[in-house]
Structures are given as structure tokens and as C-alpha cells.
Amino acid sequence: MAMVPFGTTFSRLAFAPLEASGGALNEARMGEGIRLLERAALEQALQRGVEAVAQEAGVPAQQVSALVPQEEIQGALERLQKRQERAVQVVRRQEMTVATFAMPSELPTEPSASEQLTSLAAVFARDKEMATKLRDLSFEVAAWEALLRRVVARLDEDAGLQQSLRRRRVRKALVTWGSLGAVLLVVLGGGAYLALEAQREQQEKQRQEQERARAEEKRRRVEAALGRPDPCEATGLSAEEEGALEGEAKQRLAARAQRCGEQRARQQQEKLCGELVARLEAGRLVAEDGALAGPAEPTLRRLATRALTPADLDLDPKSMPCASVAAGSKLWAALARGAAAGGPNLWGLAEGVSPGLREPLLAPGVLHPSTVLAIAFRSEKLATAALRSGRPEDTARARSMCELKSKLGQALALSCQKILK
To answer: Where are the alpha helices (DSSP H) in 15-127?
Structure first.
């Protein structure tokens, strides 16, 4: 008699909320995708899976529930509930931010809910609160997925369910054949049937031993797969093999998925930032560049048209986009060249200089000697005014100019000396 895959019946129902959430996230319906991960929905799906298996095997639901690690289930649900509620709150507070997000284009064909959340955390990396909440939720969802896969494996391997199903089928056959046929079967074939049943049980034990050996071999293969340097390299592992992981190996697999999502998001960021730098240097920024440029958009547009203002020289370093990738330094270098091209007329009105501009301005040949003299004169003027006003903001701007003057090898007058003390 062929083995019945009870795990498939259970999986179809228990994984339904996760599949629905993954589908919503994949279609950029972020709030809906996270709300679908509510604890009540996951518990109900789990219970429906248990009841469906019990009905199929012809056993009480309690017998199937005994195969479910209840303490682990409740602990996982409590942790997931906390992470899910926090994620819902931060998404609600920032609905305008997440309204137009775009998922990375290089995700697997059918990414799981945990993989979708990991990629979302990478997309919103600049929003530390949102990225942290999404990453925490992805860990708990991955743990829940792995726990369900363990239950699937237990249901498939449990000999008691298979025996109950066989007995149920035999009883059904006896009723169908009628009472006379049942008597004849017991009298003539009872002994043979019992012998055959014993043989089947022995074969089932051997099969389970073989399954355990194969599972151990799968775990060894997973260890080798987790050691690969590229986190996005395909492991060739099936969902069942991932479900066999426990403890540290399970955490390493989740961390690997997170690193892959971050790597893909970083590559996408490199590409977008590289294209922004190329258009900036060509003086042809487009409307879509505003989303990436963020608060620095006005400065970059003036830079592209060679119309920088003194306020652009003191750009907040946090405003410049692409700080996490190599293109970020190219943007500062381009701004330094534009600032240098402004000459004494621009620097003679400077109110401060951004820390991000200092290093590229100090590169050989960037500043003309006349511009250096304008910076030196303006630094002392700002220092004198700051000493008179005593305002911290004036002092900070004057200090930035005096420090640049000192780095340029210019002698400091008394005002700058006092400011830098």
C-alpha cells in the first residue's frame, strides 16, 4: 500500500497565510502583506492543517496535534506577533514613504514571505527604524516557515498515521464486502493478513531508518552550502532540506538570505548612483533623479547647471545620497569641482564648508590660488563675527572655514586661532 503524504495536506493549509503575504509583498502591497501575518491567521491555518490530516487519516485531531511541538509553536507565534505588530505600526506611521517603493528585480521566481521582507529591509536601508522592524519580522517569519516544515516532515514520517489509515481502509473494505465476506476473510485470511501487516511494519521501520540517514546526509550538504562565500549563490537545497535545519544552521541560513538581499540592494544602489553621477557630470539630470537625490536635489541641480550658491558649500553630509556606495565619493568630488569653479566670487560669500567637501577640495590643482586667498579672508571674517555673536551655529560654521584654511597651508590670524582653540 503506497504511503500517503500527510505533510502535503498539512502544508497546503498551514502555509496559506504565508503564501498570501508573499504574493501581496511581491505586488508592492506592503501594508496588506504584513497584516496577513497576524497571529490569529497563522494559528487558524495551522489548526485547519491538523484537522485536515486527522480527517484524512481517520484519527482524532488530538493524535495529530501530539506530533506538533506545541511549546515551540506558541513561543514562535508570540515572538512573531510582537515583530508583526511593531512592523504594522511603523508602516502605518510612514504610509507616504512606502506608497511607491519598488522591490529589487533580481528576487527568486517565487520568493517566500521571509525573503520578501528581507529584501524590503534592504530597500528601506536609509530608514533605520523601518529597516530594523522589517528585518526582525523576516527572521521570525523564516523561523515559523522552518518550524512548519519540521511538522510536515514529522507527519510524513509518522508510522502511526499510516497504520491508522490502513486500518481505516480495511474496515471500509470489510463493510463493503458485507458481513459474510468479512467472516470468510477473518477465517481464511486472518493469519495471512496479520503476517503481511507485520512484514509491512518491519519495512516501514527500515524505511524510516533510511529516511533518517538521508536527512543526515542532507544536513551535511547544507553545511557545505552555507559555507559558500557568495550568499546569493544557489544552494540547490529543497524546502524539505531547509526544514531539517535546526539551531545554528537555521540561523545561518536566515542570515545568508539577509546578506543576499542586502547584496542585491547594494548592487542596485551602485547602478542607480553610477547613472546619477554620469548624468550629473553631463549636466543632464532628469526628473526621476529627484527620488534618489533626496534633500540634496536642489544642490545637485544647481551644480549641473553651474549655478551653485554659498549655501550649497555647507551641504549637510547626511543629505548627500549614495553614501553607502562608491558613487557617493564621486558626488562629493563633483561638488568640489563645481565649488572650485565658483572662484573667489562664490567663496567670498561662504557661510561655512561641509565636511564632505574638505578632502576633495584639498586635492592638488582643485583650488586656484586666488580662491585659496578668498577662503582665507572669508574664514577670518566669519571667525570675528562668531566671536562677537557667541552663537554656537556661527562658531561651528566659522570653525569649518578656519579648519579648511589651515589645511590649505594658510597662516591663521588671531580670530581663527581663537575659534579653533
So the answer is: 16-26, 30-35, 39-57, 61-65, 70-93, 95-98, 113-123
